[in-house]
Amino acid sequence: MNEPNNNLGYAIFHGLEHNDYLNEIYDALLQNYFLRLFHIETIAPATFETEDALRFADLLSKSVYVEKSEKHRSLAQEIVTLLRTIKPNDEDVEYVMGSVLSCTSNYLGLQHSVPEFLEAGILERLSTTIDKDYLRIPSEKDSYFLSSQKEVYDHMVEDSFFSYSGPTSMGKSFVMRTFIRERIKQEPNSNFAIIVPTKALINEVSKEISDNLGQLLREFDYRIVTSAGAVILQDKNEHRYVFVMTPERLMYQLIGYPDIPIHYLFIDEAQKISDKEGRSAFYYQIVGMLYRNEPHPRIVFASPHIPNPDIYLELVPNAVEGDRTKFVSSYTPVSQEKFLIDLQAHELGYYNSLTEELHIINNFTPDRDFQSFLVELGRGKKNLVYCNAKAKVVDFAREYADSLPILDDPDLIALAEEIREEVHESYFLADTVEKGVAYHVSYLPTSIRLRIEELFRKRDGGIHTIFCTSTLLEGVNLPADNLFITDYKNGSYPMSAVEFRNLIGRVGRIQYSLYGNAFLVCLPDVNIEPTNYVSLLRKEVEPQILSIDTISDKEKEYVRDCLKEGKTKLEKLNGQTNEAFALMRKAANILLRDIMLDRKGRISREFESILSDEDVALIKQQFTGRQNEPDDDINISLDQVSTLVDAIANGLDYPNVNIYGYVGYQPTLDFLEKLCDAFDWETYESGTLGKLKDGKHANLRFYATLLTQWLTGNGIKYMIDQAIGYKRGKNIYIKGESVPFVDGPEHHNKVIEDTLNNVNDIILFRLSNYFMRFSTELKKYKRKDFLANDWYEFVEYGTTNKTCILLQKNGFSPEVATYIQKHEDLYIERTEDGVRVKMAVLQCPRKSVQGEARTVYNNVPELFVTE
Predict the structure, then answer these.
(1) Dihedral sign, Cα of residue 85, residue 90, residue 94, residue 96
(2) 13 contacts: CB under 8 Å, gap ≥ 6
(3) From CA 364, how far away is CA 386, in angstroms rounded?
(4) Mean pLDDT, the chain, as a whole number?
(5) Contact 178, 344 (CB under 8 A)
(6) What 3-state class would DSSP assign to 122?
(7) Segment 495-517, tens digit of pLDDT
(8) Which of 48, 391, 454, 542 suits a disulfide with 28, CB 3.0-4.6 Å?
(9) Contacts of 497 (CB under 8 A, 6+ apart)
(10) How far is CA 422 from CA 378, 415, 447, 448, 758, in A?
(11) Can you give the pTM of this predicted structure?
């Protein structure tokens, strides 16, 4: 809605952010902060009138120009924050900062920045009291929402379907957790589901919810569920649930337990629905499955930065009634200041976000390297260093740690020892952790990654610097003071505007500070220029489109023609990327299922223009009455299901595992070869499971070895030791070059990383998904609810040991479950009701065990036995 331009507010605030004098003051503040930050004394500070800067800040904080008020208030807060940094003991600055934070309703920032602030006038105090009462977080005495958070919370309460976006530091997940907590108190018969984009986020989000709910979990008999195989689900609706899952896991949860309703669905990082790859299809499938039957859930979509969050409301079927609203916020409770460190031109500068200009201010000597800046700027701070590749993450972390001393920190020493015990004594991560430096990559064992995050959040001591990949873009919340960005790419592709803003938004957390520093680094010998960063900073976030909108007419017509012929085996089209093929294939599976059920989901609506009534009738005819009909598992197409069912009918079964948990290599390889035929891995997994070399599935031999080792339950360290032993006397690939294996730390770590990667990608992702489907069909064929020799469970939990599996099904990570099982005499008691955990585990000297035990105890108290 256009704002009237004939009122006083418009006259005062319209275009204020472009005022020449304001821009002059703002630029002077940035320059002086830059000089202070980099300890540059050879350049005189810029001059400006402090009183005028404070007047601008005060005025901007009171902006009533709706279109720009949030940006004005963010700018007001940034001005006083910069002023306070430059003039730390100025009473006028302190007072105006308090006034600005009060006007912007940033009461959390007020509490930790100027806690003694009190408005001078009675009317102002009364207004603040009324505002605080309105923004007070339910059930909390002295905690308050931001205005944008309050609006989001109210929409969650009132609307059936709501989609919103805001800056990364807005606290979107916090509002979700608060809503769930209050809804449980008011409506304790509801089930909640939160979709997170990666496995790495499952543990973080579930722990935050557990901590937030506390005793409410027991009081109202709620269980936090992170896996479709959780033991507690076997009780079905005897409890209430909060599901925290990836899209794939939630789909299998809905398939496995269709009778457990979901009343509220939260989709975090909803911009993933726009990704042009196969995983985005799961979001359409989940929403479609939830709206086949009553009760229909209420849905909330949350995204960072995007201007059109309402696009995701299109996933809700048109026929479903309910209010559909959107909300977009640009107010950020923390400021991110941007600086350039150009190691090619040896220049330093700062970026002015008002003028969108990069200012080069100073030069430095060519002998300075990136590590020296990291040491200087990161001293006494919490630092994140973004790299676009895993190899760079490890190399940079090692190089930085080499210049630092070992810290006398018991937590770091304990974590380093745990890494050596769980992974390998040569693992570089253990050495860097002892110096307060870690790396955060997707293949790290869960318990170790969680301990790294926990020790980084520790304000005094702990880990001070984390080197990371794009896992940081996907929602991991780490309270950093500094962010060093060493590349403008995510992997080998340039970041989008939304990715770049999401990354920068990770620095500065409102719980601790009002600002953070983002350093844009141009490394030597890397094809990066300052303009690459500036272009991303200037680029507006484009309106998003749904991934389904990217499927071309040619691809749609190909899908239609195949289905009309009764075919579900799709071939990759000329010029089609792997990502586009995966999306097309999964969309075809959803479309076929919708046609058979006479449903009109979002994907069906996308194909309407090229599907006639006659086409739909013919497709129904082609697939009706078959032995195997389309189902909800979009990972597997009907052609695969049919060949799999035939293979099982002809005797295909899991190889036997002996009483010691051992299975032979040859039976395992033979089984994988048969699965390769049944699932047609040569077509659908041509780069991994079905890769051909000289007419043979060369990779399957290696995967069979890896799988047999994984099933023993001896853990990652055992597998790594085996891999290192195998490599002796052979060649190893280092940076794409085949070289003789050298029995030392460098090559050991390459084997460690390869093993961890293969476990995550091949074992826990690809084989796990296929084994899940194989187990499902095997149970149907044998007419059993459970399999005694269920390799899906063995793979999912990394062991054949029933105690270890039980512990994981109740929420323990594989590493911690294995530790407890190996110390059974201390922590396990066998009762008439089965295996129980002793309370002594809550005082376990290993911190990762102790921390997880507390979370599981809150969530599943019946698993524990009092002594």
Answers:
(1) negative
(2) 63, 64, 65, 68, 69, 72
(3) 23
(4) 92
(5) no
(6) helix
(7) 999 999 999 988 987 877 899 99
(8) 48
(9) 305, 536, 539, 540, 541, 542
(10) 30, 10, 10, 9, 17
(11) 0.93
Phi, psi of 300 (to 5 degrees): -125, 125
Torsion angle defined by CA atoms of residues 620, 621, 622 and 624, in that order, rounded to the nearest 10 degrees: 80
Q: Are 313 and 323 in contact (CB under 8 A)?
A: no
Give the position of tokens 């108290």.
861
The tens digit of pLDDT for each residue in 102-114 reads 999 999 999 988 8
With CA atoms as reference, report the closest residue to 793 among 290, 229, 244: 229
CA diameter of the chain: 86
Which residue, among 812, 828, 767, has the nearest Cα to 792 in the 3D structure?
767
Residue-wise pLDDT for 534-577, tens only, equals 999 999 999 999 999 999 999 999 999 999 999 999 999 999 99
Backbone angles phi, psi at 622, to 5 degrees: -65, -35
Closest-CA residue to 78 (of 66, 95, 61, 102): 61
Q: Which amino acid is at 536?
A: L
* Cα–Cα distance list, 738 to 156, 272, 695, 730 (Å): 56, 37, 23, 10
Residue 670, pLDDT > 90, answer: yes
Inter-CA distances, 727 with 114, 341, 416, 750, Å: 60, 41, 25, 11
Contact 779, 645 (CB under 8 A): no
What contacts 403, CB < 8 A, 6 or more positions away? Answer: 371, 375
Closest CA to 272 of 259, 262, 286, 255: 286
Phi, psi values for residue 193, rounded to 5°: -135, 135
- CB-CB contact of 391 with 734 (8 Å): no
Sign of CA dihedral 508, 510, 512, 515: positive
Q: Which residues pair with 325 in a beta bridge?
A: 162
Cβ-contact 391, 428 below 8 angstroms: no
Secondary structure letter of residue 573 according to DSSP: P
Mention every residue, 6+ apart, whose C-beta is less than 8 A from residue 568: 562, 588, 589, 592, 630, 637, 638, 639
Q: Are 302 and 267 in contact (CB under 8 A)?
A: yes
Looking at the DSSP bridge assignments, the partners of residue 839 are none
Contact 827, 844 (CB under 8 A): yes
Give the pLDDT confidence score for residue 233 in this predicted structure: 74
Which distant-in-sequence residues (6+ apart) come within 8 Å of 657 by Cβ?
Answer: 663, 711, 789, 794, 800
Amino acid found at 138 = P
Asked if residues 757 and 764 have their Cβ atoms less than 8 Å apart, the reply is no
Q: For residue 474, give the DSSP letter.
A: G
Write out the H or E segment, with its range, that includes residue 738.
strand 737-740
Dihedral angle, C-alpha 549, 550, 552, 557, nearest 10 °: -50
Q: How far apart are the first and last CA of the chain?
A: 65
Q: At what angle do helices 446-457 and 847-859 cross, to 10 degrees?
A: 100
Q: Which position has the higher pLDDT, 2 or 144?
A: 144
